[in-house]
Automatic annotation (TrEMBL):
Keywords: Transferase. The keyword Plastid does not apply. It comes from the Bacteria. Residues 1-86 form the GST N-terminal domain. Residues 88-214 form the GST C-terminal domain. The keyword Mitochondrion does not apply. It holds the Pfam family GST_N. GO terms for molecular function: transferase activity. This is Glutathione S-transferase.
Length: 230
């Protein structure tokens, strides 16, 4: 059984999609990050960095419980565990390269774009421009790569597609635009193709029965950005 520590944000969404695609048995453990539950000692024992997602595999190697944190590490772990969505062996280098591109570039820069456009005090024009322009650059990299391609790596659907989908699913919020993918037709076509998969709708509903805190008030800001208040 996979215990899945979840909040409805882009990085956990990647894991929701994998679990639904693979048909693995799992249970949701809601972590309300706007209430600060990620800072509890119980959760820090799962992820010392205090971020979602994280998983505990109660049937890890040798029958021992295995913790895994960071969304792309979880995707690699689950793909290797199940033997699914890893693509062809000869594409392993490409797969890891695109996973790291998303993990170190597109993902964190998207998060900073969200922060400066939706959370930071007004007047941070430099920050807004910096991260918006970097997201536009990252989207252009993906758009160029996806020209004449159906999937991110090789000829099949892999965890690289799932990882990218988690953030592109929130492109409207990241880009603060009603049509964020219109300038990137190849990326848009890819996204529409992934969204046609039946597992996507199931992934979107993961955790929907839980009432997570939605207000971005002072409590949420202190929970999400504690270093700003230390």
């Amino acid at each position: 059984m996979i215990r899945f520590y979840f909040h409805p944000t882009p990085n956990p969404a990647k894991i929701s999609l994998f679990l639904e695609e693979a048909g693995l048995p799992y249970e949701i453990v809601p972590i309300d990050t706007k209430k600060g539950e990620q800072h509890s000692s119980e959760f820090r024992a799962i992820n010392p960095n205090g971020k979602v997602p994280a998983i505990v595999d109660t049937d890890g190697a040798g029958g021992k419980e295995t913790r895994v944190f960071d969304s792309n590490a979880i995707l690699i772990y689950l793909a290797e565990k199940t033997g699914k969505f890893l693509g062809a062996a000869e594409d392993r280098g490409e797969l890891l390269s695109w996973l790291m591109f998303i993990a170190s570039g597109l993902g964190p820069f998207s998060g900073q774009a969200v922060h400066f456009q939706h959370v930071a005090p007004a007047g941070n024009d430099y920050g807004v421009n910096r991260y918006r322009k970097e997201i536009e650059r990252h989207y252009k990299v993906m758009d160029d790569h996806l020209a004449q391609r159906e999937f991110v790596v090789g000829d099949s659907y892999t965890i690289a597609d799932m990882s990218l989908w988690g953030w592109i699913e929130r492109a409207a919020f990241v880009m603060k635009s009603d049509a964020p993918l219109d300038p990137y037709p190849n990326l848009k076509k890819w996204y529409q193709g992934i969204c046609a998969r039946l597992a996507v709708e199931r992934a979107r509903k993961v955790g929907s029965e839980h009432a997570f805190k939605s207000e971005m008030d002072d409590i949420a800001k202190r929970a999400l950005f504690p270093s700003n208040y230390s």
